[in-house]
């Protein structure tokens, strides 16, 4: 019998982003390292392989304790097909800007789905 996942079990925010974004969010209290030494954040720089970003995205979207996944929009662009395929309610996926890359609503897959839903 499959175990049901309750929204009450989801109490963490995960982040995939650049060093400045991660640092700010960690200072604000977002970030966790569990007993198995699994982090709820991934720092991405120019040398980070796309496969590492995709693996972190997959891990964060499958973990039952994560309620929200924040990802810098410019990082999401590197794995856009994977982000576009993601359609689960939990964890909620939110694309955020970074210091060097402003938010572009035309690239946000979630916003595109909402606009399609409302016929815009």
UniProtKB/TrEMBL annotation:
Its main location: membrane. It is found in: Vacuole membrane. It is a peripheral membrane protein. GO terms for cellular component: fungal-type vacuole membrane; proton-transporting V-type ATPase, V1 domain. InterPro entries: ATPase_V1-cplx_f_g_su (IPR008218), ATPase_V1-cplx_fsu_euk (IPR005772), ATPase_V1_fsu_sf (IPR036906). Gene3D superfamilies: ATPase, V1 complex, subunit F. It comes from the Eukaryota. Keywords: Hydrogen ion transport, Ion transport, Membrane, Transport, Vacuole. GO terms for molecular function: proton-transporting ATPase activity, rotational mechanism. Belongs to the V-ATPase F subunit family. NCBIfam families: V_ATP_synt_F. V-ATPase is a heteromultimeric enzyme composed of a peripheral catalytic V1 complex (components A to H) attached to an integral membrane V0 proton pore complex (components: a, c, c', c'', d, e, f and VOA1). Subunit of the V1 complex of vacuolar(H+)-ATPase (V-ATPase), a multisubunit enzyme composed of a peripheral complex (V1) that hydrolyzes ATP and a membrane integral complex (V0) that translocates protons. V-ATPase is responsible for acidifying and maintaining the pH of intracellular compartments. This is V-type proton ATPase subunit F. The lineage of its organism: Eukaryota, Fungi, Dikarya, Basidiomycota, Agaricomycotina.
């Amino acid at each position: 019998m499959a175990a049901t996942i309750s929204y009450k079990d989801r109490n963490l925010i995960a982040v995939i982003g650049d060093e400045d974004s991660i640092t700010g969010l960690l200072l604000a209290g977002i970030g966790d390292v569990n007993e198995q030494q699994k982090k709820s954040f991934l720092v991405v720089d120019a040398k980070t392989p796309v496969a590492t970003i995709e693996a972190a995205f997959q891990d964060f979207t499958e973990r039952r304790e994560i309620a929200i996944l924040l990802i810098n929009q410019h990082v999401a662009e590197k794995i856009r097909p994977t982000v576009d395929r993601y359609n689960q309610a939990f964890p909620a996926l939110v694309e955020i800007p970074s210091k060097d890359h402003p938010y572009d609503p035309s690239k946000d897959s979630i916003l595109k789905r909402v606009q399609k839903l409302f016929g815009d």
